[in-house]
Amino acid sequence: MRRAQVSFFVYALLLSLCTVVSTHVWAGSGHSLEIYAIDVEGGQATLIVSPDGQSMLIDTGWPGFDGRDASRIVAAAKDAGVSKLDYVLITHFHRDHVGGVPQLAERMKIGTFLDHGKNLEDAEVTRHDYAAYEKVVAGAKRLSMKPGDKIPLAGLDVEVLTSAGEHIAKALQGAGQANPLCAAEKAAEADPSENARSLGVMITYGKLRVLDIGDLSKQKEMELACPNNLIGAVDLFIVTHHGSDSSNPVALVHAIRPRVAIMDNGAKKGGSVEAWTTVTSSPGLEDLWQLHYAVDGGKDHNVAAELIANPEGTVGQGEDKGNWIHVTAQSDGTMTVVNGRTGFKKTYGIKAPKLSGSAH
């Protein structure tokens, strides 16, 4: 009997240890990077949740509309299991990017604000929105970022590429090759607006690389791509400036060779035919996803309906629910993208993509 009791004790102990080990392995292997492209009607609001659970929101959408954009951000954060934003990064001080800060700050706790420094655009509306932003951040932690700075988002490597009109002096690791596409690119005019001062970042999770450079204009994008490609290839590209033709030169977009792109356009904002064509013709691109059907693009310059979160004919009819696009990414470079409207999902592996019509 005593021998049986000892045997049972050993068995129970081994079973307990196996359970602890297997639970630890399962929890560690389940970590992922979560990205929500939130529909703020042609502005930007991109929620990043690191594998370690820290969060960073890139831009806050528009002011007004009874707090519409702030409410949509809160809804996405709730879906992601986020109750506090560790960082709010403002790419630049245009209304569709910084305008939602006061309303969002009333709804969610924010740890640290990140930006490029003072407003550098001489326009009344921009001065007004910057003043509203300053009023909110006066009692909060605020950091002005420079090219080469790192944002300490746990579980990720986040490097600032552009800020206040400046860009990184050295190529990122593995990049820096001469860019043959530069020869055919027309010179771009200087842009005196806040767009050219956008705070742009590269987010790296293992082998996965995500590029978001706000509304950076062509001249500044070209500085990243010519004569040498300072960025290298990326896996996920948040299309610059909502898919505007004043951004997205071929010499940049085709040089970074994104596997997947997300365009945070509105129904009648961004999504230009020129930018859409540049992105969709980029070598190696598997898919472009759109937050909205671009009205001016027509049937020939919009992607398939299952890749559009908010389809044609909903704006202004009380039907536009602000559907998001949700990306779950792994450190090996695998990504699963979900249409928040339908639950349609597509997984992009290192090789061929897999299709699924299962619900989110």
Features:
360 residues; alpha/beta; 19 strands; 9-stranded mixed sheet; 10-stranded mixed sheet; disordered N terminus; single chain; globular; Metallo-beta-lactamase, Chain A
Can you describe this structure?
The protein is α/β, with parallel strands linked by helices and 360 residues long. The chain has 2 domains: 1-28; 31-356, Metallo-beta-lactamase, Chain A (4-Layer Sandwich), CATH 3.60.15. It contains 8 helices and 19 strands. The radius of gyration is 22 Å and the shape is globular. Mean pLDDT is 90; it is low at 1-30.
Let me know the average pLDDT.
Answer: 90
Number of helices: 8
Task: Bin the helical content.
Answer: 10-25%
Name of the level-1 CATH class of the largest domain = Alpha Beta
What is the end-to-end distance? 54 Å
- Corresponding CATH superfamily of the largest domain: Ribonuclease Z/Hydroxyacylglutathione hydrolase-like
Largest sheet: 10 strands, mixed
How many strands? 19
DSSP strand content: 15-25%
CATH-defined architecture of the largest domain: 4-Layer Sandwich
Q: Give start-end ranges of low-pLDDT stretches.
A: 1-30
Strand order of the largest sheet: 6-5-4-3-2-1-16-17-18-19
Question: Which structural class best describes the helix and strand composition?
Answer: alpha/beta
Coarse shape: globular
Number of domain units: 2
The CATH topology of the largest domain is given as: Metallo-beta-lactamase, Chain A
